[in-house]
Design goal:
MetI-like fold, 71% helix, 295 residues, mainly alpha
Length: 295
Amino acid sequence: MATVSERRITTQRSRPGRALAGFAGEAVIWAFLIIMALIEFAPISWMFSTSLRDPSRSFDLPPDFWPTAFNIGNYWTVITSPDIDFLLFFWNSLKIALIVTVAQLITCSMAAFAFARLRFRGRDAFFFVFLASMMVPWTVIMVPTFIVIRNLGLSNTHWALILPALTSAFGVFLLRQQFLTLPAELMDAAKIDGASYFRIYWQVMLPLVGPGLSALGIFTFLGSWNNFLGPLLYLRDWDKFTFPIAIIQLEGYMGMGNRAHVLAGIMISIFPVLLFFLFAQRFVIQGIAMTGLKG
């Protein structure tokens, strides 16, 4: 009996020490996360504050990470520039990014449903080959893709940027993992009710993988919106250029352009994506976290 009492006393004495150690560990983690957040946020804060300053103060030392002036005219000058049709470039990028995003959501979700829920000969082998394509960098297939686009007569058109991006192995993998987390009984019940495979995919399974669709949609939109090398390779006419090309034009010859105007253009390109991500970040994080639950 005395031994049990001694153990209880020892346990009670050790609890404050454990609580203190746990608090110290949590504090270290929070401090690390805050430092990483500041490191990530500092360049964006500097770009935003500099885009609102007078151009002559763009490179003041030490750098100011908070706005010291609110010269909105920099943004207006960029938008109404007579040399660069900024709004046209913005529309071209938005159109291409939206088409590519919608196309990938459809094609990747259909392929992911087939790989996850349908049984056919060679399914695992096909999926392995599909995943293997993710290990091939884009620079390796850049020249063959350019030759195919030229032979199809799609050079200097937006289709040269849309067609190669209609689907992606990463999107198929991401959504396949989402479909695998759903109970198989849902599909069995739909079969008993006489639903076809397409109806099961469209009305039963697809609404349940919303987080994965949101994550894939943002990743795809970001990749298409920030695509610089593709438009530089395939496009020639001024009225077909995209937003990243417009920002390069703002820099001018040998990078002698107005830095405040260049940063204002960059901030304009960030705002739509940033707002979209802020509204959908919960679904993005949930979609990424669920990809490793079952495979």
